[in-house]
C-alpha cells in the first residue's frame, strides 16, 4: 500500500462502519476521505498535495481515454472509402454526433461525482467506454446503413461526458492558487487523447491499410479496462463534496456562468470541433488521401493539448481574462490566414493558420477554466463571506458552473462541424465557415474585454473585495 493510500484510509477510524457525510446520510468503504481542506497550507503540505496529485494522475489517464473514444469517429471516417457510400457532408454530420451527445452528457456527469464519489464515478464512466468501442468494432464495415453509423457514433458521446466529471472532481482536490495549473494539466492530458487515437489511426492505415479500422479498437478495449482498474485501486472519494441542486440553480442564475459559456465555445468548442473536422477538411478541400490526411490531423490537437496547462499557468500569473483576450485576438488573426490560404489554395499556408488555431485554442482552454473558480471566489468576497466560508461558496458554485460551461462549450464543436457541412454543401469550400468563426472570435474578444477587463468593470468587481490591512487585494479578484 502506498503512503498516500495509507493516509487516505487512516481518515476512517473503522473501514467497515458507516461514515458521516455531514448531510444525514452515510458513506461506506475505505476509499472515502472525510476531511478535506486544501486551502489550509499545513494540511496541504503534510498530505493534501500528495493525495491530490495521485488522484490527478489517474484522472488524467481515464479522461485521456475518454477523449480518444469521444473522437473515435474522426478517425473511423478516414477508413470509410467510396465503398461505404457516404459523401463528405454525411461524414461531417457523423463526426458531429458524438460532439452533441457528449455535450448533453456533461451536465449529469458533473453531478455524478458528488452522487457516487469521484473515484467510483471515474471507474464506472471508464467502463462505459467499452460500449461504444465494442459496438463500433461490430458495425464498421461496408454495407452498414448510415442510420446505424449515426446511432453508434452517438454512443461515443459518453467519452465527452468524462471531461465534466473529471474536471469537477479535480477542482475539489486543489486549492484556488493551484487550480489553474491542475485543471489545465487534467484537461490537457485528457485532450491529448484526440491526437493519440489519430496517430494510432495513421499507424494502422500506413501499415495494415485503410480496410482495418478494427485494429484501432482492438488497442483501446484493453486500455479501457486497465484504466478502470487503476482508478479503482488508486483514486479516492471526497465525502465533503455533496450534490447540491441549489448550486446548479444558483450557477445557472449567475450571468457570469453564461458569459464564460460563450468564451468556452470560442476556445474549447474550436479545439474539439477542429479536431473532429481536420481530416475531413483536408480530404475535401485539398483532395488529400486518407493516409495523407491522417499524417497531418494529429499535429494540431497534439500541440493544442500540450499547451493547455501553459494557458492555466499563464492565467495563474497574469490573470485569466488577459490571457483569454490575447488568445481571441490571435485566433482572429490565424483565421484570417486560413481564409487567405483557402483563397490561394495553398496547403502549407493553410496548415500554418489551422495549426495555430489549435495552439491558441489550447491556451484559451486553460485560461478560461482558470477564470471560473476565481470569478465565484470574488463573488463570495463581494457578498461579505471570508475565509473558509468564501472558499466553500466558491467551490460550490464553480463546480456546478463547470458542468454547465463545459456542456455549452462542447456544443461549439457541434456548431463547427455543422458549419463545415453546410459550407461544403453550398460552396464546395470551407471558407464561409471560417468567416463565421472569425466573427465569433471577434465577439468573444469584445465580451472578454467588456465584462472582465474594461476599467469600469474591474472597479465594480474589486470595490467590495476585502483585503487584510497593508495587503493588496487577492489576485483572483482580477480573474
Fold and architecture overview:
The chain is mainly α. The protein has 20 helices and 4 strands. It has helices at 3-9, 41-70, 72-76, 88-116, 118-128, 130-139, 146-155, 158-173, 176-191, 193-207, 214-234, 245-253, 255-286, 290-297, 299-318, 320-344, 347-382, 387-427, 431-453, 455-463, and strands spanning 19-20, 26-27, 32-33, 237-238. The strands form 2 sheets. Strands 1-2 form a two-stranded antiparallel ribbon. A hairpin with a 5-residue loop joins strand 1 (19-20) and strand 2. Helix 2 runs parallel beside helix 9 and helix 16 runs antiparallel to helix 17. The chain is globular. It starts with a helix and ends in a 16-residue tail after the last helix. Mean pLDDT is 86; it is low at 1-26 and 463-477.
* CA radius of gyration: 22 Å
Terminal Cα span: 40 Å
Largest sheet: number of strands, sense, barrel closure: 2 strands, antiparallel
Task: Based on Cα principal axes, name the global outline.
Answer: globular
Amino acid at each position: 500500500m502506498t503512503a498516500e493510500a495509507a493516509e487516505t484510509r487512516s481518515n476512517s477510524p473503522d473501514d467497515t462502519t458507516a461514515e458521516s457525510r455531514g448531510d444525514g446520510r452515510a458513506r461506506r468503504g475505505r476509499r472515502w476521505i472525510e476531511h478535506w481542506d486544501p486551502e489550509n497550507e499545513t494540511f496541504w503540505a503534510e498530505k493534501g498535495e500528495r493525495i491530490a496529485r495521485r488522484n490527478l494522475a489517474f484522472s488524467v489517464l481515464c479522461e485521456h481515454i475518454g477523449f480518444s473514444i469521444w473522437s473515435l469517429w474522426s478517425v473511423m471516417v478516414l477508413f470509410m472509402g467510396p465503398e461505404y457510400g457516404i459523401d463528405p457532408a454525411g461524414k461531417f454530420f457523423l463526426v458531429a454526433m458524438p460532439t452533441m451527445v457528449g455535450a448533453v452528457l456533461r451536465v449529469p456527469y458533473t453531478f455524478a461525482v458528488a452522487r457516487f464519489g469521484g473515484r467510483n464515478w471515474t471507474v464506472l464512466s471508464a467502463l462505459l467506454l467499452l460500449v461504444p468501442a465494442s459496438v463500433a468494432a461490430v458495425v464498421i464495415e461496408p454495407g452498414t446503413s448510415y442510420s446505424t453509423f449515426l446511432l453508434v457514433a452517438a454512443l461515443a458521446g459518453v467519452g465527452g461526458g468524462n471531461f465534466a466529471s473529471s474536471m469537477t472532481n479535480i477542482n475539489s482536490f486543489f486549492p484556488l492558487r493551484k487550480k489553474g495549473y491542475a485543471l489545465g494539466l487534467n484537461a490537457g492530458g485528457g485532450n491529448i487523447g484526440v491526437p493519440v487515437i489519430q496517430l494510432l489511426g495513421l499507424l494502422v492505415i500506413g501499415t495494415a491499410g485503410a480496410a482495418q479500422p478494427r485494429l484501432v479498437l482492438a488497442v483501446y478495449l484493453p486500455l479501457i479496462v486497465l484504466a478502470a482498474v487503476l482508478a479503482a485501486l488508486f483514486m479516492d472519494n471526497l465525502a465533503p463534496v455533496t450534490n447540491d441542486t441549489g448550486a446548479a440553480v444558483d450557477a445557472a442564475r449567475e450571468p457570469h456562468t453564461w458569459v464564460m459559456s460563450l468564451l468556452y465555445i470560442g476556445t474549447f468548442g474550436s479545439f474539439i470541433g477542429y479536431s473532429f473536422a481536420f481530416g475531413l477538411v483536408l480530404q475535401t478541400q485539398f483532395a488529400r488521401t486518407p493516409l495523407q490526411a491522417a499524417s497531418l490531423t494529429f499535429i494540431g490537437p497534439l500541440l493544442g493539448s500540450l499547451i493547455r496547462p501553459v494557458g492555466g499557468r499563464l492565467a495563474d500569473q497574469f490573470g485569466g481574462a488577459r490571457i483569454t483576450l490575447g488568445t481571441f485576438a490571435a485566433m482572429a488573426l490565424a483565421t484570417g490566414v486560413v481564409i487567405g490560404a483557402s483563397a490561394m489554395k495553398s496547403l502549407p499556408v493553410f496548415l500554418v493558420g489551422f495549426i495555430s488555431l489549435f495552439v491558441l485554442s489550447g491556451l484559451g482552454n486553460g485560461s478560461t477554466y482558470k477564470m471560473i473558480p476565481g470569478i465565484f471566489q470574488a463573488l463570495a468576497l463581494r457578498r461579505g463571506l471570508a475565509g473558509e466560508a468564501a472558499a466553500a461558496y466558491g467551490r460550490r458554485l464553480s463546480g456546478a458552473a463547470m458542468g454547465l460551461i463545459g456542456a455549452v462549450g462542447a456544443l461549439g464543436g457541434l456548431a463547427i462541424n455543422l458549419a463545415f457541412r453546410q459550407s461544403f454543401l453550398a460552396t464546395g469550400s470551407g471558407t464561409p465557415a471560417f468567416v463565421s468563426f472569425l466573427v465569433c472570435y471577434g465577439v468573444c474578444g469584445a465580451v472578454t474585454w467588456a465584462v472582465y477587463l474594461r476599467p469600469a468593470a474591474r472597479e465594480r468587481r474589486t470595490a467590495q473585495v476585502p483585503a487584510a490591512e497593508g495587503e493588496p487585494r487577492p489576485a483572483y479578484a482580477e480573474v
